[in-house]
Amino acid sequence: MVLKFSINEMDSRGVVNLVGDLDIEATEMINDDLIPCLLEFQIIQLNFEHVPFVDSSGMGLLLNIVKRLKEQNIEVTISDVKEEVYEVFDLLQIPEIVGEETFV
Amino acid sequence: MFRREMLFETKTDYANKTLEREIKLARNIQMELLNGSQPTLEKGQVTGYSLPARLIGGDYYDFHVLPNGKLRIIIGDVMGKGIPAAMLMILTRGAFRSAAESTQGPSETLTAMNKALYSDLRTLNSFVTVLCADWNPETNVLSYASAGHNLPLVVKSNQDIEEVPKVKGVMLGGLPQNTYKENFVQLLDEQLVFFYTDGITEAQNSDGDMFQTERLRKVLQQNYAEAVEDIENSVIESLDNFTENVQQKDDITMVLLKVHQGQTKVSSYNSPVLN
């Protein structure tokens, strides 16, 4: 399923609800649409509850989101990751790259 | 007005044709580099195949025969697609070829590649997953290290197939100064090692269903007794039948290594002369 997103705003905090597969097809949407929207917040929570699948390109996209936000001193967390998706994150040592504390 | 429009169309056509020609040339370069000469193994077989989802792709595989007789295999997947991924694939190839000459094993190779590529990958906001393996034809031991890449399958018989023991590693471009762990598996005669990129297991049909590892395992088991080229063709055929020519999102790449009984010796196509 093609990835879609919505953002719930609460003051300076944004909760990003991702719905669909985070894969190679999401590249333009993440880089051109999502990331620019997030730069106005101070805190971002990426909700992965409705992301059933992430491929290797999706991993790279996620790392880029976190990197871009942290460069702007925006606090970012990743929440509600499905167990099977987290297994792949763990295999690729994503928590070590972005910091264990990013996953809540 | 008419003349100006004609002129515009001509310029646009020219630009499009030039672009099309250059993309085709880039594809030819990539396919030549990817599908170059493959080492001939005495009493063993190795083959590789890569099919880009678009005109050109970001998957990569390569072989390198080491002076000590081992065969070094690498398979990788550059994040992204199309021309940008293809450019990074060429960078990755250069890093592997350079590292393969000067490193002792797969973990050292990945460490050296990450060191060489990290800065460029961070500048370009990209990552590369790769798996590197050394096969020793004397001992039949396959040692390997992974930079975020899926592990190969070992087909032991038409009934028995399993993934090699786990080893974790950060994708290239993930962390600077990263080092990689290594694991190994003892191969037996007639066993097949299947290296692949996730474009195979994640190939989709028109219903959006994925090919998945189970279908891959089944086709490998069914064709286990065949030559590597025939097994490769069976996988391609099985993928074609499953996807029914639906345009794929990701590149598809595989490398097959089959060990045969008896003394096995690597015949090199590019191994350096040792005095």
Give the helices and strands, then pairings.
The complex is a heterodimer of chains A (104) and B (275).
Chain A: E1 4-10, E2 13-19, H1 27-38, E3 43-50, H2 56-71, E4 75-79, H3 83-91, H4 94-98
Parallel strand pairs in A: 2-3, 3-4
Antiparallel strand pairs in A: 1-2
Chain B: H1 2-34, E1 40-42, E2 44-51, E3 59-65, E4 71-78, H2 82-102, H3 106-123, E5 128-136, E6 141-147, E7 153-155, E8 161-163, E9 183-186, E10 192-196, H4 198-201, H5 212-222, H6 228-243, E11 252-259, E12 265-267
Antiparallel strand pairs in B: 1-12, 2-11, 3-4, 4-5, 5-6, 6-9, 7-8, 7-10, 10-11
Helix pairs in contact in B: 2-3
Organism (chain B): Pontibacillus marinus BH030004 = DSM 16465
Keywords (chain B): Hydrolase
Pfam family, one (chain B): SpoIIE
CATH topology of chain A: Transcription Regulator spoIIAA
Number of strands of chain B: 12
- What radius of gyration of chain B results from the CA coordinates? 20 Å
Which of globular, elongated, flat, extended, rod-shaped describes the shape of chain A? globular
The CATH architecture of chain A can be given as 2-Layer Sandwich
Average pLDDT, all residues of chain A = 92
Overall CATH class of chain A: Alpha Beta
